[in-house]
Amino acid sequence: MAITEDVLSLFRQEIPGYLENWKEVPLRLDSDLFDYPRDDLKDALDKFQREFNVSLEGVDWSLYFPWEYTPLLKRWFTLKREEVEASRIPLTVRMFAESAAVGKWLFG
Question: Is residue 107 part of a domain?
Fold first, then answer.
């Protein structure tokens, strides 16, 4: 369980919580990282790879961020963002914690 807490702590350091009813709600294990700023997420991913020695090079990011990986012409002319985003898989801190425990990315 310690590795789970270590991963959660790392992500909390890099990605701030959000405000709800004027109180900060910290990042949780099952928080969807899609909803947080991409710059903060990139920093967290870089630090995660260094500290837990888990390579994210083979990750199919289009599963988690499909709109960003849809060809530009297709986005302009045929698709609606909501339709594309409806097919995405949530990306959570728990996924990173489970991967850190075995030393490799386990999802997609």
Answer: no
